Automatic annotation (TrEMBL):
Designated name of the protein: Heme iron utilization protein
Lineage per the UniProt record: Bacteria, Bacillati, Cyanobacteriota, Cyanophyceae, Nostocales
SUPFAM superfamilies membership: FMN-binding split barrel
DUF2470 domain boundaries: 10-85
InterPro entries associated with the record: DUF2470, Haem_oxidase_HugZ-like_sf
Pfam families in UniProt: DUF2470 (PF10615)
Amino acid sequence: MSAEFSHEVSSRICKHMNEDHANAVLLYAQHFGGVANATKAEMLKIDSVGMDLTVQVSEETLPLRIEFDHNLVDSEDAHHTLIAMVKQARTS
C-alpha cells in the first residue's frame, strides 16, 4: 500500500471505528490528543501518518490531528496500531 490510504480504506476504517468503537475514538482524543475534557469524538480520516478527528468539548466541536508513532504500512498495521493505542490509553 502506498504512503496514503485510499479514500475507500480510510472511510471503511473510520466507519467501523465510529460505529463499533466510539469509546476508543474518544480515548484517542483524550489520551493522545491531550483533550482530557472531550465528551465525544469522531474519526474523520486515517492515513499512514495519523488520524483526523472532531472532538466535542462543552458546546464546541474542534478538529484534532493525532499522529502515529510510526508510518502505517497497510490497513492491518492500522488495525494493530489502533488496538495497541487503546490498550496504552487504558493502562496510563
